[in-house]
Amino acid sequence: EKAGYKHFMLKEIYEQPQAITNTLSGRINAETGEVSIPELNLQGADFDKIDRIFLVACGTSWHAALVAKYWIEKYANIPVDVDIASEFRYRHLLINERVMTIAISQSGETADTLAGIRIAKKMGSKVVTICNVVGSTMTRESDGTVYTHAGPEIGVASTKAFTAQLAALFLFTIYVAQQKKTISKEKGVELGRALIGISSVIEKELPRIQDQISRLIESFYDARDFLFVGRGLSFPIALEGALKLKEISYIHAEGYASGELKHGPIALIDKDMPILALVPQDDVYQKSISNVEEIKARLGRLILIGTEGDTHLQNITDDIIYMPNVHEDMNPIMYTIPAQLLSYEIATRRGCDVDQPRNLAKSVTVE
Ligand code: F6R
Q1: Stated pTM of the model
Q2: What is the pLDDT of residues 93-103, one digit of tens each?
Q3: Interval between CA 58 and ligand 1 midpoint (Å)
Q4: Rounded to the nearest whole angstrom, what is the distance from the C-alpha of residue 59 to the centroid of ligand 1?
Q5: Which of 132, 161, 318, 362 has its CA 20 to 30 A from that of 102?
Q6: 58 lines ligand 1 (CB under 6 A)
Q7: Which atom of ligand 1 is nearest to the CA of 244?
Q8: Nearest CA among 231, 272, 304 for reference residue 70
Q9: Mind listing the pLDDT tens digit for each residue in 248-274?
């Protein structure tokens, strides 16, 4: 059942190219860039009536929401609020029929997220669920759905469901931007091709990334604490890396926006504090590099994940994992892979049961 892999989690990490391909299958025309999402039940004029989007989710799915905010605001030109479902449901919400609420949930059964969409719907909001389970409660109660087709996820720590959510959310972004005509035809083709192309890049790179990480973790696996940092589209991936590491290895880990370090957390940095920094060559690269150099000046133990060919990184640390140079909007999907594998390799090196971490359940159906 594990198809030769030692754990479901590793099998599911390797299933990601297929999960993304299945999620996109039949939904993008590679020639014209045109996207169709029939189960969304929304098109053209429906989006003219929307002037705000709420993204509501828990845990890893909330990290997918944080990435989607950047994409939707950039291309579909709609303001997006992101909320943790357990906060959303008890807040004084300013919602009406001009607000769209999107729940993101692998299971479609998470109690807080479900309660959130019930409240939003009562307040007149259109409700959409991004979901991996056909016929789940959230999909039954929503006006529209975007299914991820990651297949069943057995490992308690979410891996392939997360990257499939990112693929579905980028697909949704292109769709809305096309319906609202906020991107050109050419841009639609460019974004569609970038999304379709990411699966084969991940497929090709996975074994190399795992191999390099398994060698690198020998000097990091016994750490007590870990920081993950990133800016822009990499910030939510830093949060996701920290969550993965703490839930399966029990190492205390935190994710930060790189620019926040100097507002407090930099006090933690010394020669015993490992920091994984995501530094793709994107539009905030120069800013990220100056943050990383500040960490280096405080003798932090840096691991850098950056763009292949970026030799400047070698002046900062010897511990570098290079990623291929993909379309910048695909970096969150690409950079999730080393974050997952670092957590997996450290946890297994520490002898942890990665498929069944203590105190955790796959689906949280109670508050
Ligand atoms: C972490 C993890 C959880 C879930 C969260 C939401 O690896 O799996 O944080 O992401 O419990 O679950 P869903 O997406 O089913 O609503």
Answers
A1: 0.98
A2: 999 999 999 99
A3: 6
A4: 5
A5: 362
A6: yes
A7: 7
A8: 231
A9: 999 999 999 999 999 999 999 999 999
343 lines ligand 1 (CB under 6 A): no
Token pair for 34: 């045109």
Model ipTM over 0.90 = yes
Atom 5, ligand 1: residue with shortest CA distance: 59
Distance 145 CA to ligand 1 centre (A): 18
* Structure token pair of residue 252: 């205390």
- Which amino acid would we find at residue 9? M
For residues 270-297, give the mean pLDDT.
Answer: 96
Q: Could you report the per-residue pLDDT of 27-77, keeping only the tens digit for each? A: 999 899 999 999 999 888 899 999 999 999 999 999 999 999 999 999 999
Question: Residue 281: CB within 6 Å of ligand 1?
Answer: no
